[in-house]
Amino acid sequence: MANVNTATDARASYISRVYSAIRAASLLLPWLYYNRVAVSWPRVVDFFKALRESTDLPIGAVGFCWGGLHVVKLCHGSETLNGKPLIDVGYTAHPSNLTLPTDIENVRLPLAIDQGTADFVLNMAGVDTIRGIFERKNSELEESKETPKFEIKTVDGAKHGFAVRCDRDNSEEAAQEQIAETHAVEWFGKWFARIGSTT
Fold first, then answer.
1. Distances from the Cα of 79 to the Cα of 42, 86, 119, 189, angstroms
2. What contacts 21, CB < 8 A, 6 or more positions away?
3. Strand 150-155 to strand 111-116: parallel, antiparallel, or no bridges (unpaired)?
């Protein structure tokens, strides 16, 4: 991730940016090929089907970057087992590969997103699109009047990967990561308690 951040940092020298971009591409392109959605999505679905079949407990899914798309797709609720969605609630930070607005319009299950304001993958125009869709969806649902079912929060100055790849010696990055962790724990706590009280 450091190579990607350097390649997109206007303050870095031209040579550093070019080197970092080439280095990031040499690592990222093979990974993307072997983990593209057409390959990974069936694995994700199979995993959550096996999990759903093995328990009656509420199931949550967390995804960062590439995994964020999978969580969003799981929150569509279209993949089911015995008529029940594969998960009950989702959380993602700095998701990538979203097709806006379609991927967000199709969300039916509770979903929270944390997004950095300095993220090069999902820019603030995308955040505004998601926020608008979530606000509309929440206003249309009676249950969301008390507890919003969909939310997106921005983390000031956070770059792509902030929730999982921070420099712990950098107090600003460590604080950004903590914001995401706290939000995720609170989100699941709230929804698991709510789901548990209705089952």
1. 11, 6, 30, 24
2. 3, 7
3. parallel
